[in-house]
Design brief:
It contains 13 helices and 22 strands. It is α+β, with helices and mostly antiparallel strands. The strands form six sheets. A seven-stranded antiparallel β-sheet has the order 1-4-5-6-7-9-8, with helices on one face. The chain has a four-stranded antiparallel β-sheet with strand order 15-22-17-20.
Length: 438
Amino acid sequence: MVEQEQSAAGGGGAIARAPTQIGKYQLLAELGRGACGVVFKGFDPFVQRDVAVKVALHDPDADDAAHERGFFAEARAAGMLQHPHIVALYDAGVEAELSYLVMEYVDGETLQPLCRPGARRAPLAQVLDIVFKCAKALDYAHGKGVLHRDIKPGNIMLTREGVPKLMDFSIAEITGRTSAGGQGVLGSPLYMSPEQITRARLGPASDLYALGAVMFQLLVGTPPFTDAELPLLFRAIRHTPAPRVRDLRPEVPEAVSDVVERLLLKDPAQRFQSGHELAATLSRLFDQLRLSDHQVTRRESRDSLRRLRFFSTFSDDEIDEILAVSQMATYNPGDALIREGEIDNAFFILALGSAEVRKRGKLLHQLEKGDCVGEIGFLSTTKRTATVVATTRVLALKVNATLLDDMSRDCQLRFYKVFAETLIYRLSVTSARLSALS
């Protein structure tokens, strides 16, 4: 049943009356509207959670069947994707001639406020984190055969905790099922790749170009190309090299500027070829910048790891492989290795020193040389449930799951075998402690 009240119109069409309920979902307030529909904050009384409900706008001049196919193309694309950095789709349906999608409600706002020319620029670490997580989300979507085709600041939500989430797959292409042919130029002009403008075949590098344009804007405050007239804008995107970030913001590290420059190259074959490749590059870069004052020489690192039980079966060459995709760093007393509430996919092995695991300030566990911590985040990229703080000078290996794919297969297998054995041992010890307490 759909209950209706005051009229609402906008975009390319209108909803005769703004609904207050659609199906089982109560509609509480309008959140925004675009060319395809109006988004309401809703409530699902069955599972007692807030949701976002997108209701299709009706265009009296449009082909209703075609419009409905286009609206539910978003449902088909988003419904294939379950990822922590993609807004989840819960439900879709038609009620009293209104087509609607029910999605995860994100308490936050889009990246647009961070991208305004006069706004204070986001910290570099936050920019790298946002782009890294969006790259991971795109890599997952591309692996499922879904191209987003409309990456822009307005389609990336940022939760109150700072977690980015891709949304709006309304013009997504499902590889092998749909085609851009005959649809005209689709996308948001400021962020479109050269091949998207010319309606050439698109691939993952096209979405990554758009993400590069977003990264450029986060760092500089404007998109790479800003011509007001569409023909001039398209000509610049196709033929004019994008400005270098460092030419506009000299304080940005050269390596960061190089990443943006590669993302915005005209030839798709010269860009990053996958979200994984971009994420791996950003992960290395982030650690290099963050731990630049804590770096330890390769020989010191190898010698320190060789003395740990975790690496007792690894050859020197295999340890070198691990060091090539990891970071060995020192932490002073009081430094945090992991912070409660953060989301990442790394875990740590203490080579020297001791640390404490604390939750909401309460001491949970003491870590010593050879201990591992952060395995659950490494496996599932979930929020950290505790903080780990160095109590003495600590030398630790930070292992990032994203980068392990760059190791040889034999080294990966050995690493995961020892990792699994270590995790099983830790879980058995924890279980024994809980049994003793009960």
